[in-house]
Design goal:
alpha/beta, Aspartate Aminotransferase, domain 1, about 40% helix, about 20% strand, binds pyridoxal-5'-phosphate
Length: about 475
């Protein structure tokens, strides 16, 4: 409790013996007085008066609530210096990057939680230049007339996939949805029981079908579906034969499924479109790098499938997008669907996609210029050499890292069970528990993500981007505790 003491020209003299340093709401300084105090001048100079005023007001409100709720706030916490530090922290939280820059040492190349594909720097630079100003997004420069925004990239997509026509929507989930709805609203779609995939979130194929207005006709069994099963399920209401790439799981053992060629043959004969939801969608053949379960888009297009859809930010290594390729008539139907307007890409995505796709025009350099492909194509000896070099630099900073053979993963729900050989750095002593050390690394600048295996921190250099090895060494040294 406080009592006034006007005779001595002061107030808030505490009479309680035990709680003399605990604040009451009346001890909270006035906003204006506080902003005039010296420690706040520096904050105002760097962050502006409006923002500092608002954050100071919010900080005082929060302290008032603390006091009211009975939490002890010490008088020393209400001194201008202490409050300035509190406001400074609030400003840092407000103004610091929300999506902070991450060094991915997990060995998972397409890490959905870390933003999937790192974009080619040249594509980012070109797209940033275009996005910062006006661009001819929907205007044909020659005629001066209105044009289609996605025609800018469609010619490129057609070139790199060999398809007759193409279009782009926001992501591959949207691509699947709009294909189903455009071709089979109110009609039957035949699909194998082995292909009832869940991608994550609440994206489950049977639910997507229902939302798209389609009636799912499941055929075959989980492990075996024959071409005959598709053929036998066809009725006068059948509008599509759908094949889904089992990107994030593998059915192994006593298994069978019809090839795309077999489905295309049935579709041709019965005049029903055959659609392949490919998911990851590599534009190049990944077999030379040991990835055998990911068919390339050009190979699938060559089978004569009527439509194929895939993601822009998986194996293609570009921005989030859903790319649809196939027959002109079917692509036209998709573009006329009212849903198309809701799923269209913005100008930045389209520029990023354009400049990423252009890198594919030169087959001899694409495995270096597209970071996702570079990580896949990096020979194991090169990764081992980098690991040895990092271990040497860490040793100079007093940190012991041992080398071990391990595997990197493509990730992003692609190629389960297909892994790339790699050499990892294993650090079992960085101070405190491995979880605590991993947290210090995540909370550093830049933020570092690694794996924890057998109570040790594991760093895979395969997923480092050019130049990040030096940053990684510094970050590990900074996270070390005695
Ligand atoms: C990843 C994936 C999707 C979803 O693609 P997004 O681009 O993430 O929306 C759909 N189908 C399959 C088979 C996939 O692998």
């Amino acid at each position: 409790m406080s009592v006034g003491c006007p005779a001595r020209g002061c107030y808030a003299v505490r009479v309680s013996k035990t709680a003399t340093n605990i604040a009451t709401p009346r001890d909270l300084p006035k906003l204006d007085a506080l902003l005039g105090a010296a420690p706040f001048a520096a904050l105002i100079a760097s962050s502006g008066r409006d923002l500092v005023t608002e954050e100071t007001r919010l900080a005082l409100d929060a302290l008032r609530r603390e006091i009211r709720d009975g939490n002890h706030v010490f008088l020393s916490e209400l001194a201008p210096d202490a409050l300035a530090v509190r406001v400074q922290r609030r400003l840092e939280r407000m103004l610091g990057p929300i999506q902070c820059r991450v060094i991915n040492a997990t060995g998972v190349i397409l890490h959905t939680s870390l933003g999937r594909a790192p974009l080619p720097p040249s594509a980012v630079e070109a797209a940033a230049r275009e996005a910062a100003g006006y661009s001819c997004l929907e205007l044909d420069r020659g005629s001066g007339k209105r044009s289609d925004r996605d025609k800018l990239v469609n010619a490129l997509i057609e070139r790199v996939t060999g398809a007759e026509a193409a279009t782009v929507v926001n992501n591959n989930a949207a691509a699947t949805m709009i294909i189903l709805n455009s071709l089979a609203d109110g009609a039957e779609v035949v699909c194998s029981r082995a292909h009832m995939v869940e991608i994550g979130g609440s994206y489950r194929m049977p639910d997507v079908m229902r939302k798209a207005g389609c009636k799912l006709v499941e055929v075959g069994c989980t492990n075996k579906t024959k071409a005959r099963d598709f053929e036998d399920a066809i009725t006068e209401h059948t509008a599509m034969l759908l094949k889904v790439h089992t990107s994030n799981y593998a059915i192994v053992g006593f298994t069978e499924e019809p090839s795309l060629e077999e489905l295309v043959e049935i579709g041709r004969r019965r005049n029903i479109p055959v659609v392949y939801d490919l998911g990851a969608g590599s534009l190049v053949d990944l077999k030379p790098y040991g990835i055998t379960r990911e068919p390339s888009v050009p190979d699938l297009v060559a089978t004569g499938a009527d439509l194929v859809c895939f993601s822009g930010d998986k194996l293609l290594g570009g921005p989030q997008a859903g790319i649809i390729v196939g027959r002109t008539g079917l692509v036209q139907r998709i573009k006329k669907n009212a849903l198309f307007r809701m799923m269209r890409c913005d100008k930045f995505t389209l520029s990023l996609l354009e400049h990423t796709l252009k890198l594919y025009l030169d087959a001899s350099t694409v495995t270096r210029s597209v970071p996702t492909l570079a990580a896949i194509a990096r020979p194991a000896e090169q990764v081992a050499k980098l690991a040895r070099s990092i271990a040497g630099r860490l040793a100079k900073r007093g940190i012991t890292a041992t080398l071990a053979n391990s595997t990197s993963q493509i990730g992003g729900g692609s190629t389960p069970g297909e892994e790339l050989p790699t050499t990892v750095l294993v650090i079992d002593k960085l101070g405190g528990s491995p979880d605590a050390a991993a947290k210090r690394l995540r909370m550093g600048t830049p933020s570092v993500f690694c794996r924890i295996e057998n109570d040790a921190l594991v760093f895979d250099p395969r997923t480092l981007l050019p130049g990040q090895d030096a940053e990684l060494v510094n970050a590990i040294a900074a996270a070390k505790q005695a």
